[in-house]
Amino acid sequence: MVYRVVLIGAGIISRNHLEAIRQVGTLEAAAVADTDESKGKALAEEYGISFYRDYEEMVTKEKPDIAVIALPHHLHASCAVWCAKQGCHLLLEKPMALNVDQCDEILQAVATAGVKLMVGHTQHYWPANIQAKQLIASGELGRLLAVHDTRHLYYYRDNRPDWFLEKAKAGGGILMNLGAHSIDKIQWLTDSRVHRVKASVTYEGPRGDVEGSGCIFLETDSGLSGVIVQSGYEGPPKDETELIFSHGMAKLISAKGLWISKGGEYEQVEPIPEEDPFVLQFKDLLQAIGNEQDPDSSGEYARSVIAALEAVYRSDRTGVEQHV
Ligand SMILES: NC(=O)c1ccc[n+]([C@@H]2O[C@H](COP(=O)([O-])OP(=O)(O)OC[C@H]3O[C@@H](n4cnc5c(N)ncnc54)[C@H](O)[C@@H]3O)[C@@H](O)[C@H]2O)c1
User: How far is the C-alpha of 240 from the C-alpha of 57, rounded, in Å?
Assistant: First the structure.
């Protein structure tokens, strides 16, 4: 069977999805919708698919099996609920929604419609992350005791779409967008859920009203401690996760690889063959649809990331530790 896919949102991430669809034999891209006509039409032409300005019209006419929702965060919930009601399986970009209440609306709509929902937590598919998860499970370096995750990325680049810097539309700044990846990465790597946080954020960016940096101290329900430090201000880019074990350490550098130390300098672990994370993500969704099971990155799972982020912002506001 070939599944027809439509894309809602023709922005930065849409190409990753369309390239992945090309590589998965059982998927066919049918159409793309975007309120920005020139952007949407150009993408549709490039990939030889239909263009619509209105996603409701597109879904009604195209009757796709799967809708990929790649919209600004404030539109995730309304779009996912509407598409679920039309009977589409959903690949909804991360973060799932602006808050837990919206996540619950999506979960309710998906359950009622009997469709599958996967949220695009692509961290699960990067080869070095997969190797790190295996390393933790193997016990080779002993017990995992702490995680230190750092992300530095200039967040105010001129071509960043404005909505990312508006709290009402993005739900938050660097933590909502990239912190969602860090929280997901820590939860997924360690098979645990963040259940306690103490966090503070800063608002020093040149535009917008979202936080430009944040520090999170967290604890998971397995008793693991973690620190996430993110900065969107000027500085050298960095995207690293250090894992501190009882008998060694590991360093995960995003999209680059995994290093381990059993004492002394880090040595790189032989990389595993790379497969496009967006391809693996679609394969996971297809398996979930075919086997009538929830994908790894289910709606319930993605809700836990939003619940942790809500607690982060609450902790910053109140100045005290928050339970998730
Ligand atoms: N998984 C990842 O690694 C990853 C990477 C980048 C972005 N993302 C996520 O993907 C989503 C989209 O991000 P992006 O960087 O592509 O943003 P973007 O701003 O480049 O794209 C969003 C698009 O949605 C369109 N749009 C807005 N309102 C619309 C509407 N009502 N109907 C149809 N189209 C509408 C905009 O015109 C724009 O083209 C976000 O949730 C983001 O966090 C995920």
Answer: 43
